[in-house]
Design brief:
GO molecular function: tRNA 2'-O-methyltransferase activity; zinc ion binding
Protein name: tRNA:m(4)X modification enzyme TRM13
Number of strands: 5
Largest sheet: 3 strands, mixed
Pfam families: TRM13
Distance between the termini: 54 Å
Keywords: Metal-binding, Methyltransferase, S-adenosyl-L-methionine, Transferase, tRNA processing, Zinc, Zinc-finger
Helix content: 40-55%
Enzyme class: transferase
Length: 335
Amino acid sequence: MLRDVPLLKQAQSLSLQPFYQKGINAGNEEEEDNVSSEMKRSAVYSMTVTQFCKLINKIESVHASTCMDILESYKVPEACNMWIKREVDRKLPFQEKHVAQQASILGNLEDFGVIKSSVGRRGYLTQMLADCYGFDTVFLVERKSYKLKADRSLRQKESLILERLRIDIEDLNLNAVESLRGIPYLAIGKHLCGPATDLTLRCCLGNITQTESSCPTLGITKEQFHAITWFTSWAVDADHGSDLSDITDCSLHSQSIYYSEEKQRSGDEHGVEDVVRNMKPVERAMLGFKCKQIIDVGRMMWAKEHGLDSQFVKYVPSSISPENHLLLARHAKCL
């Protein structure tokens, strides 16, 4: 029990912070979703093969109507030359693909008009912001405490104010962070899971009044959405050593799926679980990535419904990282 005392003290200390508000970004009751992954899996496997095929067709249709014109936006901003040319602290780890990701994220933010040039991984994106764009105040929001080499380097910059908020993003009231009151700020989320992405969007945009929707209804039911979110794990499970560069441009009209439908009609097929088991890994990955894109485009639509300018782009080639999409949003006053 003694081991629990520091955690208890941390929780008590956090509850006294003005920016702590339990569940502020969790969404309203209609938005809350407590359906577990296992429950989603069971719901999919309880479908008939015909129903499963119709769901695949629906995903294909929605993806074709919303995700086929995603802009490729690979940026190498001049401001990041000092990092690209390795004119930085030699003690910091350097991996070309990580620098390419960080530079393109910042280049897209620059082109989008939310940062201006002043002349990776989690900590190194912040380091690049400070080194290349002159940011002088940084808040790191994390549930757990990480001790990264970039932290030590950042703290050595005398002109930089660095503060870590050790809090779950679900409970963070940004309006109550004293240092952010009345000033514009840039929020960057990297390495976030899907639910954490949604929490972060609510955290940053929660006070913006929703405008009348101009986005088309995609016709996705709650049950279909649960299935789509479950399918996204298939992209995470994919063999990222394979060339998946054109995976989302391919059709999912798999012969094995429709052959299974015919087999079930004849009594030789035992259901969706067998269909899934017989799908090729590339087919599963293809479906997973398409579902991820549908959800991300939905987030972009949500931002637009809240009066924000928003874009969804591929910011690096999939050969650098298959997780290569970037959602950008800005308030009108940033124009």
